[in-house]
Amino acid sequence: MYSDFHLHTAFSDDSDYAMKSSIEQAIALGLEEIGYAEHLDYGIDSVDQCDIPLYLETIGDYQKKYKGQIEIRQGIEFGIQSHTILEYQKTFDAYPFDFVILSIHQINNQEFWRNEYQEGKSRVAILEGYYNELLSVLSQYNDYSFLGHVDVINRYVEGGPYLTTRNRDQIAEIFKHIIDRGRGIEINTSCYRYGLKDLTPSREIIRLYKDLGGEIITIGSDGHNQEELGFKILETQNELREMGFKAIYTFKEMMPVGHLL
Questions:
Q1: Residue 161: its pLDDT value, please?
Q2: Homologous superfamily of domain range 3-260
Q3: Domain residues of the chain, as ranges?
Q4: What is the pLDDT of residue 23?
């Protein structure tokens, strides 16, 4: 199964990629199934949030138009925080998503990419605070399909190691929680674009997930334009196979669907 389950278009505030163009590009690349996950980051006033009714109407039209050529799934990426959970619950209850990516993009409305959250903190405090926030969210919210870019904070922290004993324990707790509830993780191939020295999440974290019994795993490019769509998906599938994973997963109507590697 050649699939990319983390794509953004002009319905996200940080992309101007037309959905029609992205679908036709995906077909040209030979992708069999794609999942759109437009951004929704409540708490950040400067961000134009996804127009969900228009997004779902548009994707519905294209599902009909390209039926038989490619499977198109309607997802959303929740940039969730502990204090915004209620807003996300209302959104989830109101709309029929195929999948939900649970991501942490900011803490206390302080965005990572602007260095707002990291400012004045030590590397240890930044990492520990990030994983504590993820644990806090997971303890209160359950309507998601998989975790997005689990160690995304590594993009924004200089120095290493990124996985201390404390962080490993936190991540193990996170994984036990989601595995028990039938949720999964993604491999986010944006790591190559950011010039990171490892996958996202890192290979060590992926192996930890597998060792703890994790099976549900998907791959997404986090693509926002033509060059990024489908990037390194097949190579990452091969690497997961070498790690011992038996399948990758796509999602339909909030249910995971396995495809043998």
A1: 59
A2: Metal-dependent hydrolases (3.20.20.140)
A3: 3-260
A4: 98
Beta strands in 59-204, from DSSP E residues, in sequence order: 71-79, 99-103, 106-107, 110-111, 146-147, 184-188
Two tokens at 214?
A: 């994790």
Nearest one of 105, 125, 98, 95 to 34, comparing CA atoms: 98
User: Can you tell me the distance from the alpha carbon of 210 to that of 159, in angstroms, rounded to the nearest whole number?
Assistant: 26
pLDDT at 99: 98
Tokens of 228: 């990024």
Here the tokens at position 100 are 């939900």
DSSP 8-state class, residue 223: B
pTM of the predicted protein model: 0.94
Token reading at 162: 């990124």
Mean pLDDT by 10 residues, the chain (261 residues): 96 92 97 96 82 97 98 97 96 98 95 91 92 97 97 82 82 98 96 84 95 98 89 96 97 98 94
Q: Which segments of the chain are extended strands (E)?
A: 3-7, 33-40, 71-79, 99-103, 106-107, 110-111, 146-147, 184-188, 217-220, 247-252, 255-260
Does residue 252 sit in helix, strand or coil? Answer: strand
Nearest to 168 by CA among 204, 125, 117, 121: 204
Q: What is the pLDDT of residue 29?
A: 96
First CA to last CA across the chain, in angstroms?
8
What's the rounded Cα separation, in Å, for the pair 31 and 12? Answer: 22
Nearest-angstrom CA–CA distance, 227 and 225: 6
